[in-house]
């Protein structure tokens, strides 16, 4: 007569419950980890920038990471997309424009954007590969200037400083080509997007451009300007810009962004990167 083992089924059921419990615990642990990871990832600050600003900012990014602040740089090749993307909420902030440009952009678009802090200011200059002095630039020369209202005004002020043109209102930083009252050398003005002025040096007779963009394009040494602007005020300092309500809708990120900006403004390594990338005599601190 065969004896039946009456303890095998309960033992088997017990093992199944143990395995099921382990699986449930693992799933819960996984969900907790995923949720924490997702929350941590959501605290990453995305900063939209123009490529010439990347290297010194990356130094600040690396220093900030050591303090638990995660910043991701997103590069834009034009001067319109950074504000559009910021207004849509796809990035947290941008760093590419000065106050006159921001004021004009918000006026034209209705975007609710504001500066949260000030970065560096750079000098601008008149450059030429064909001529070694402003006096040598001939009549009917092809002169390249930016096509946006704000930077075109800045270019015309510099040409006036060089005594190459005269403006209707010598103090108007938003002057345009129609405001030129005297053009004794009969310059032919060519309007291009601001970043493209750096590449125009290869073809035009005289170009208004920016040291940062010239260094990036590698078309001419930024220190070899025929004339640099004599402006040392902070009107044209580059701004860290956010949406108007950013500090209310993202208070933690806003505080971290301010900490990142403080690193950018005070770090000796960032200062050295700016000296290397821009030129020691071509930039100054806009926040002082």
TrEMBL record:
Lineage top rank: taxon: Bacteria
Cellular compartment(s): Membrane
InterPro entries, per database record: Lipoprotein_NlpA
Main location: membrane
Chain segments annotated as transmembrane: 17-34
UniProt entry tagged with the keyword Nucleus: no
Pfam families the record matches: Lipoprotein_9 (PF03180)
Membrane recorded as keyword: yes
Protein's recorded name: Methionine transporter
Taxonomic path: Bacteria, Pseudomonadati, Pseudomonadota, Gammaproteobacteria, Moraxellales
């Amino acid at each position: 007569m065969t004896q039946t083992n009456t303890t095998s089924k309960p033992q088997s059921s017990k093992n199944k419950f143990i395995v099921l419990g382990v699986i449930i615990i693992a799933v819960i642990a996984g969900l907790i980890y995923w949720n924490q990871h997702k929350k941590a990832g959501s605290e990453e600050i995305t900063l939209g920038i123009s490529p010439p600003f990347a290297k010194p900012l990356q130094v600040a990014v690396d220093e900030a990471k050591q303090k638990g602040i995660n910043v991701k740089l997103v590069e834009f090749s034009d001067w319109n997309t950074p504000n559009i993307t910021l207004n849509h909420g796809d990035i947290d902030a941008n760093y590419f424009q000065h106050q006159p440009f921001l004021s004009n952009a918000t006026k034209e678009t209705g975007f609710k954007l504001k500066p949260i802090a000030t970065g560096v200011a750079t000098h601008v200059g008149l450059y030429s590969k064909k001529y070694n002095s402003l006096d040598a630039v001939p009549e009917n020369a092809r002169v390249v200037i930016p096509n946006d209202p704000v930077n075109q005004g800045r270019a015309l002020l510099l040409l006036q400083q060089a005594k190459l043109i005269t403006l209707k209102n010598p103090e108007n930083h938003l002057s345009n080509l129609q405001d030129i009252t005297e053009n004794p050398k009969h310059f032919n003005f060519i309007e291009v997007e601001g970043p493209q002025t750096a590449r125009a040096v290869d073809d035009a007779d005289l170009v208004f451009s920016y040291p940062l963009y010239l260094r990036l394009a590698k078309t001419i040494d930024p220190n070899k300007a025929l004339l640099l602007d004599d402006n040392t005020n902070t009107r044209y300092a580059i701004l860290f810009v956010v949406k108007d309500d950013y500090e209310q809708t993202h208070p933690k990120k806003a505080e971290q962004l301010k900490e990142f900006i403080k690193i950018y403004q005070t770090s000796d390594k960032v200062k050295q990167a700016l000296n290397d990338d821009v030129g020691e005599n071509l930039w100054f601190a806009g926040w002082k």
